[in-house]
Specification:
Layout lengths: L1 H21 L1 E5 L3 E2 L5 E9 L4 E2 L14 E4 L5 E4 L2 E2 L4 E5 L5 E10 L7 E13 L14 E4 L12 E7 L2 E2 L4 E5 L5 E5 L5 E4 L5 E11 L3 E3 L2 E3 L1 E12 L1
Parallel strand pairs: 2-10, 10-20
Antiparallel strand pairs: 1-3, 3-4, 3-8, 5-6, 5-9, 7-8, 9-10, 11-12, 12-13, 12-16, 14-15, 14-17, 17-20, 18-19
């Protein structure tokens, strides 16, 4: 009986870890905004490709306690207030200057998934006025996906993304790109951390890159032997 209980416990830990790793945190916000007009932001947790958006009370561990940051084009960083809804958290900001604004989240879950530490990261950009040039240095996330120029992309035309880890290109790493039609594809980065693909449908897309390391340590009083980071970036296609 003890052997059976132990086996079931191990299976439960593995299943829990798989469930956590399958889910992602992502930001949805319109690509462009207007000076002096409130700009809406939504934060989701679930599986975008399957159109699964978990209610906040069902989010893993304390992920719902994330912090949403806004960085203005001149580098001023401000924490935004978030409000829980049926399927996501909502926020907003009012841009006062033209340029590209950076939205970012970086949250380590308080609980381990088995013996793995989980870290959820997301970023998005908003263009105000004619400027679309992204200053990636304003995004403080250790693992990040971004575009050089933030715009509404066109279907059937190539979209280029960049993946960086701790300031260096993330080379030869798979990035999953999911469409609003439920289609998803894995694209490998090159030696410069770049990848490109052609979107087939209009709507919002979410790209995710993951990094998994076999490292050990102690997190909130519990030992872990692996660390997983998942970072998302969402964008629009017309």
């Amino acid at each position: 009986m003890k052997t059976l209980k132990f086996t079931l416990l191990v299976c439960l830990c593995i299943f829990t870890g798989m469930q956590v790793q399958a889910h992602a945190l992502w930001i949805e916000t319109p690509t462009n905004g207007k000076l002096g007009t409130a700009h809406d932001v939504k934060i989701f947790y679930g599986e975008f490709a399957l159109n699964e958006r978990d209610a906040p009370e069902k989010w893993y561990s304390d992920v719902k306690d994330f912090t949403l940051w806004l960085v203005t084009p001149d580098g001023k960083k401000t924490q935004l207030t978030t409000i829980a809804g049926p399927s996501h958290y909502s926020s907003s900001f009012t841009p006062e200057t033209e340029g590209v604004y950076t939205l970012m989240v970086s949250h380590e879950a308080a609980e381990l998934g088995g013996t793995t530490k989980y870290h959820f990261v997301s970023s998005a950009y908003v263009s105000i006025g004619k400027s679309s040039k992204v200053n990636a240095d304003l995004n403080e996330n250790g693992l990040k996906l971004y575009v050089d120029n933030h715009e509404i992309f066109a279907k059937n035309k190539s979209v280029k993304l960049l993946a960086y880890l701790n300031g260096k290109p993330l080379a030869n790493k798979p990035v999953t790109v999911a469409s609003p039609e439920g289609w998803s594809k894995e694209v490998m980065t090159d030696e410069n951390g770049a990848l490109s693909f052609q979107p087939l449908w209009s709507g919002r897309y979410v790209a995710e890159v993951q990094n998994f390391e076999k490292i050990s340590g102690n997190h909130n009083g519990k030992d872990f032997d692996a660390a997983w980071v998942g970072s998302t970036f969402s964008f629009e296609v017309k």
